[in-house]
Design goal:
537 residues, disordered N terminus, elongated, 3-stranded mixed β-sheet, GMP Synthetase, Chain A, domain 3, Glycerol uptake facilitator protein, alpha/beta, 19 helices
């Protein structure tokens, strides 16, 4: 097969590109002192007293940083640890096929792991602090991203070792990014507190970093012309070495991918639950969701939500949320609400001293002034009510003064399509009585929430009606207990086609533009020659 329009085969093109790349690598590796790099890394496989001391000290620093939840201390331990040396030596041993060097590197790493785990477990037993902090827990569930991070960091570190460019800064960054000592401290902590699952998670993170650095550094060393002819005792062919590393990589990737999938599912579940809670509990100037936590229990979930609210959410709303959570996530869900009562609006500024102690004594109040003050207080009470019933509005708030010893009469007119139930009527009365400071008889009247819907000559909803229907978005976001009733005029044989067309356009606008579920929209026939949209509960 040849490339389109040319007589050059793919194999010829591949050989040409390979040759060009090989010549490019040769030019870049001509300045590398291969013998010096091999000598340097071979020397890092020796178990000296200073090496063991550094392992012990860096491990203890990491352990104490984990126990007190200090990021800075943990980072300091990463920089002190000498464990990166034998890990890079193992990567070089695979590139060279040097069995003797690989044995020394593996022995060094094994002793380092054993010492670190033993010391961390011992000091955990002696420490009065044994609580699992965030820094500890974050190192017990590695996923595929940890493998990728260690791979990229190992590549950068091996390049710096060979080229000696920015060597100090690069190896420091590699030590921080891959973090081989803190996971071993977590293993020791898990053993010391007898939390073997946590210890296994910490060891999986360490082994992930180890494998990724060895594989990536081996690739870099091989690319930069480190060959078996430079080794003292080469035993394995390059193909055999890559097969071993590839097999280890596949095996270790399986639990990491599984963990990543579980984490993704958890994030999606959390997002779905938060969306349901916000739809029910986030109400403008009434309640706001501040925190959500999820826990598994008896085959279901316990969802703990914290809210700031100006009025306690009753048990009926809580039960409705639990039902929707159970239906949406497919498992039994229990909602536990932590409600914090707050005040709506701004804090009033302090009253000046001159207002508290007037210079002139006030004139005695007349009946007219008393009525004016009562009307003003009633207006404040109605504004407070309106903040709770948003997006519905109070169109009128009037007061009637009765004979002596009889309650004041108050009439509140709400722009809403359904009347107040006894519970709401009782609550409205309590709010207004608090504002007036007196007993009252409350009457709640309603007027249509939206004006009649009007259309253009082409049966398109006009701009005024579109603007008037905008609050329906807020209703759909705040509650799930509502229905939209589209009332259309009685059609005759002359207007039947136009009425149907306008009805379809109106329903389509409600569903597609305002986001109202189609199953909540119902069409009814009216008596008047006009279209109306009503919100019912």
């Amino acid at each position: 097969m040849t490339t389109e329009g040319h007589g050059v085969s793919y194999s010829t093109m591949w050989k040409y590109l390979s040759a060009r790349f090989s010549r490019y690598v040769d030019t870049k590796t001509s300045d590398i002192d291969h013998k010096n790099v091999i000598s340097d890394l071979a020397g890092r496989t020796e178990l000296s007293g200073s090496y063991i001391s550094s392992i012990v000290l860096s491990n203890l620093i990491a352990l104490f940083g984990l126990l007190i939840n200090s990021v800075a201390v943990v980072i300091g331990a990463m920089l002190i640890s000498p464990l990166m040396g034998p890990i890079f030596s193992l990567g070089l041993a695979f590139a060279l096929g040097d069995l003797a060097l690989s044995r020394r590197a593996v022995r060094n790493i094994a002793y380092s792991v054993g010492i670190a785990v033993f010391v961390a477990a011992l000091f955990t037993l002696l420490s009065p602090l044994k609580g699992a902090t965030h820094e500890i827990l974050s190192r017990t569930r590695p996923n595929i991203y940890d493998l990728l991070i260690a791979t990229f960091a190992g590549t950068a570190g091996a390049l710096a070792l060979c080229t000696r460019k920015n060597y100090l800064f690069t190896t420091t960054g590699v030590a921080v990014a891959t973090a081989v000592i803190p996971p071993l401290s977590v293993v020791g902590y898990g053993v010391g507190t007898w939390q073997l699952g946590m210890a296994a998670g910490g060891f999986l993170l360490f082994f992930t970093n180890l494998v990724a650095i060895v594989i990536s550094s081996n690739f870099v060393f091989y690319l930069l012309r480190f060959r078996g002819s430079m080794a003292e005792d080469p035993r394995y062919t390059a193909r055999r070495r890559f097969q071993i590393l590839g097999t280890v990589l596949v095996i270790i990737s399986i639990p990491l991918v599984v963990t990543l999938v579980k984490d993704i599912r958890k994030v999606k579940l959390t997002g779905r639950i938060e969306g349901i809670l916000k739809a029910h509990l986030n109400r403008l100037q009434h309640t706001r969701l501040t925190r959500v936590s999820i826990a598994r229990e008896d085959g279901g979930y316990v969802v703990t939500a914290s809210i700031n609210t100006v009025k306690y959410v009753d048990s009926e709303v809580q039960k409705d949320v639990e039902k929707e959570l159970t239906a949406r996530i497919g498992r039994p869900a229990k909602l536990e609400l932590e409600q914090i009562i707050v005040r709506s609006g701004t804090i009033e500024p302090p009253t000046p001293l001159s207002a508290i102690i007037p210079a002139v004594a006030p004139a005695p109040e007349t009946l007219a002034t008393l009525r004016a003050k009562a009307v003003a207080r009633l207006g404040e009470g109605c504004r407070e009510i309106e903040a709770f019933i948003t997006p519905y509005k109070i169109s009128d708030c009037s007061i009637t003064f009765s004979e002596k010893n009889k309650p004041i009469g108050v009439t509140v007119t709400i722009a809403r399509d359904y009347p107040s139930d006894p519970r709401e009527l009782k609550w409205l009365t309590a709010v207004l009585e608090k504002s007036l400071g007196e007993k009252l008889e409350l009457t709640v009247a309603t007027i249509p929430f939206l004006p009649p819907i009007t259309f253009s000559d082409k049966d398109v909803i006009d701009d005024d009606s579109r603007k008037a229907m905008e609050p329906l978005k807020q209703i759909a976001a705040q509650t799930s207990d509502y229905r939209i009733e589209v009332e259309r005029p009685m059609a005759n044989h002359r207007s039947d086609s136009r009425t149907k067309n306008r009805t379809l356009n109106l329903k389509e606008y409600l569903v597609k533009e305002l986001g109202i579920p189609a199953q909540r929209v119902e069409t009814v026939s009216g008596r008047k020659d006009q279209f109306r949209v009503r919100v019912t509960n």
